[in-house]
Amino acid sequence: MEMQEVVNRAIRALIITAVVFAAMVWLLSAGAYLWIKVLHIVAVMSWMAGMLYLPRLFVNHVGLERGSTASDLLKGMEHRLLVYIINPAMIVSWCAGLWMAWRIFGFEGTWLWLKLALVLALSGFHGYLAKAVRDFAADRNVHSSRYWRFMNEVPTLIMILVVILVIVKPF
Length: 171
Ligand code: HEM
Known about the structure:
The chain is mostly helical. It is built from six helices and no strands.
């Protein structure tokens, strides 16, 4: 059941992204570029804020007694952060980013392909954190707070590399 559920959620996110992207391609001309970039930057800021905060919640959650009020509180915070902020922010980041990549840059530029590879890795890590939210909710987490502190650095490192690539466009 677990793996099938992960696949179903990923397919659902892909369908929503494809439909929104198709609507943007159909409705928007290149003149919308700067407004789409505003939308993109606001969405990636929200996505990154959530991706940096969620492992921090896990660090604090590990030490709590299972079934305690504090543990239940963190389960609710982790679920709401994922469902109401991180998931929608990722979808908007992809739609606005792909629209600019297609409409403005014609998918040209080594920086763009390297960036796409990094944000695909970031999206995979997003999926891993989503599974961890379900593990904590079912009191199935097996990792230490030290492990989650280390995991907290993964989105930080990817974010720095992505921003260098898109601002400097070194190649
Ligand atoms: C999710 C998939 C993503 C795609 C397809 C994508 C694609 C793009 C494209 C094509 C641009 C326009 C570049 C320009 O106007 O010069 C852009 C701008 C930008 N992206 Fe992304 N991006 C994605 C995710 C991210 C992420 C995760 C971050 C940050 C961690 C990010 C940070 C930025 C920034 C800061 C800009 C503005 C750059 C500027 O104005 O010079 N993007 N993105």
